[in-house]
Design goal:
Helix content is 48%, strand content 10%. It has helices spanning 5-11, 30-37, 50-53, 56-69, 89-102, 117-125, 129-132, 137-150, and strands spanning 41-47, 75-82.
């Protein structure tokens, strides 16, 4: 079955790595399903905008379908707010809303990923934000996320 192709490929290498991170499109499709089938955990990224947070139920439905039919070991590590800016009230409102609706049943990562134009510049220079501008607030956000993910076990 084509839903298992990525899992079959990655299984050959799983003893060589502590973690494999798969970044995939937010749309329901064969690439995303393959990534979920091959994964132990998934992180649901949500831009800190109202309409983006409205899509969380659709993503949760997709994850739960994969759990039920294809990968019962898949666990939701949490919801990660991205492109967050501390000043606009909208971002804080989205953060509060996501915590209120999902915080009791799904982890909402403590620190959102801060918006920074520096992150957008990184691919052009072939560097991560941690190397490109390590003191940037977005770099701090990613370090915080890494610590939180490592604490999951």
């Amino acid at each position: 079955m084509q839903q298992y192709r990525l899992k079959e490929k990655l299984d050959k290498y799983k003893d060589n790595y502590d973690f494999v991170i798969i970044d995939c499109p937010p749309a329901v499709g064969i690439l995303t399903v393959n990534a979920l089938v091959a994964s132990d955990y998934c992180i649901i990224p949500v831009q800190s905008q109202y309409l983006a947070s409205e899509g969380i139920p659709d993503v949760l439905d997709m994850v739960r379908n994969v759990q039920k039919k294809l990968n019962p070991k898949l666990d939701i590590a949490g919801i990660l707010l991205t492109m967050y800016q501390a000043k606009p009230k909208l971002c804080q409102s989205v953060k509060d809303g996501v915590n209120e609706v999902y915080g009791d049943s799904i982890r909402v990562f403590h620190r959102p990923i801060e918006y920074s134009i520096r992150v957008a510049e990184c691919p052009a220079v072939g560097m991560s934000i941690l190397d490109y501008e390590p003191k940037n607030s977005a770099a701090d956000s990613y370090r915080s996320l890494a610590q939180e993910v490592l604490s999951l076990g």
